Amino acid sequence: MGMTITEKILAAHAGVESVRPGEIVNCDVDIALGNDITAPIAISELKKVGAGKVFNTEKVVLVPDHFAPNKDIASAQQAKVMRVFAQQQGLRNYFEVGQMGIEHALLPENNLTLPGDVIIGADSHTCTYGALGAFSTGIGSTDLAATMITGKIWFKVPETMKFIFNGKKKNKWITGKDLILYTIGKVGVSGALYRAMEFVGPMIDDATMDDRFALANMAVEAGAKNGIMAANQKVLDFIAAQERKAEREWKVYASDPDAAYHSVHQYDGADIDLQVAFPHLPSNTRPVGEAKDVRLDQVVVGSCTNGRFADLEVVAGLLKGNKVANGVRMIIIPATQKIYKKAMHAGFLDIFIDAGAVVSTPTCGPCLGGHMGILAEGEKCLATTNRNFIGRMGHPKSEVYLASPAVAAASAMTGRITDPAEIAGE
Questions:
Q1: Closest CA relative to residue 196, chosen from 252, 151, 260
Q2: How far is residue 126's CA from residue 122's CA, in Å, rounded to a whole number?
Q3: Which distant-in-sequence residues (6+ apart) come within 8 Å of 258 by Cβ?
Q4: Contact 223, 239 (CB under 8 A)
Q5: How far does Cα 376 stand from its chain's mean position?
Q6: Are residues 373 and 300 in contact, defined by beta-carbon separation less than 8 angstroms?
Q7: Residue 7: its pLDDT value, please?
Q8: What is the DSSP letter of 22?
Q9: According to the model, what pLDDT value does residue 409 have?
Q10: Distances (CA, A) of 161 to 12, 212, 232, 250, 308
Q11: Do residues 80 and 212 touch, judged by C-beta distance below 8 A?
């Protein structure tokens, strides 16, 4: 019996020839990631047990991105804990404000996450790196502490669910965000609980890197342990194109033809419309046309799901020469400094500001209800983020709708959830 891509990566990092779902394995870790919310707890635990040094100063990565730039004294103290620890440990991959970005866009940009890796992070959306053909998953802060000390972590090998996307996109506006929202709508928020979600098929082969990142990023919203797709030429080209070159060996894995799967789900692109997730679950999805009566107070474009350059490019294309609707606040957050700078040189920032939007330095801020866009009671927000739980972005009586950057841009202009084809005159 063959193995899936997830099983192959775990077997290789456990130093065994093969693994099967349900087995417990102890794996070497290529990258251990923490942010300004989770890393301070891990650092405290590391000190409690008297550990002097991290296992590898190249492989422990710290990024202050959730409450940074710091919004208050408490968040400043948390960031200081990380900063001092990074200096004391001599960590190469600590990214200070000014160099940092949203972690799950920043690490691939720096070639720290590579095909065939085992990557753990004390952040649930660490599953993003499955877009590169890596096994990546979120863990808790105490597990991060143990991994920072030992360089190892145990897993129960997950069963794998295969998701086959056949056909082609229904229209040019469909993105990876729509594919994953559609999928979560089909299986539910616990439909892939502690399983690997493996994405394959013609639509995945055609998907851009940004589509792949969005797909893998939201696998956790179906309860998955990880989301993954085999690295193809687009992944290899992405790695080669980065300014910082890969500094360690890596390997591309693919599932065997006779690999066993928990289940196989097949979707056709002709059936997948632009998606909107209604409050208060990412699985509460409907086609955009069923959301056209929802009036909005705020629109947010950004996050580890949709803050990349291609996302901003779509928004700029729709906003150019237009205005944000009266009464709507539009917040646009490039995911990294490099993306911010590229958008600036492309003229996007002028377009955004002229349209009446505000542009922020890279931060996760509004996605988790931290800062830079908190909602008041009764307010409704359309966001390109990944979660819309009760109180996720502010007041527990506010509402968050999830959609793609194209839907977000169109909706900001009309003040209601809108199909971008309406703005484009299609």
A1: 260
A2: 8
A3: 1, 2
A4: no
A5: 26
A6: yes
A7: 98
A8: T
A9: 97
A10: 21, 17, 20, 25, 28
A11: no
Contacts of 80 (CB under 8 A, 6+ apart): none
For 121-137, what is each residue's pLDDT tens digit? 999 999 999 999 999 99
Q: List alpha helices for 94-150, DSSP H.
A: 103-109, 141-150
Residues whose CB is less than 8 angstroms from the CB of residue 199 and which lie 6 or more positions away in sequence, other chains included? 163, 165, 215, 216, 227, 228, 229
- For residue 26, what are the contacts with CB-CB under 8 A and spacing of at least 6? 14, 152, 153, 154
List the beta strands (DSSP E) in 338-424. 358-359, 380-383, 399-402
C-alpha distances out from residue 105 to 303, 330, 381, Å: 9, 21, 23
| 385 backbone dihedrals φ, ψ, rounded to 5° | -80, -165
Rounded-to-integer distance, Cα 192 and Cα 227, Å:
10
Phi, psi of 366 (to 5 degrees): -70, -25
Angle at 330 between CA 371 and CA 275, to 5 degrees: 100
Beta carbons of 75 and 374 less than 8 angstroms apart: no
Q: Quick one: how far is CA 365 from the chain centroid?
A: 14
Q: Beta strand 285-287 with 275-277: parallel, antiparallel or unpaired?
A: antiparallel
Q: What is the mean pLDDT of the chain?
A: 96
Q: Which amino acid is at 259?
A: A
With beta carbons less than 8 A apart as the criterion, state whether 286 and 278 touch.
yes
92 burial level (CB within 10 Å; 0-12, 13-18, 19+):
middle
Tokens 């900001």, located at residue: 412
Supply 36's token pair.
């300004």
Residue with tokens 């409450």: 67
List the structure tokens of 321.
């020469």
**366 close to 379: Cβ distance less than 8 angstroms:** no
Helix/strand/coil for 277: strand
CA 57 to chain CA centroid, Å, is 25
Distance of CA 46 to the CA centre of its chain: 27
pLDDT tens column, 286-310: 999 999 989 999 999 999 999 999 9
**Are the beta carbons of 331 and 302 closer than 8 angstroms?**
yes
Tokens 């409907």 found at:
286
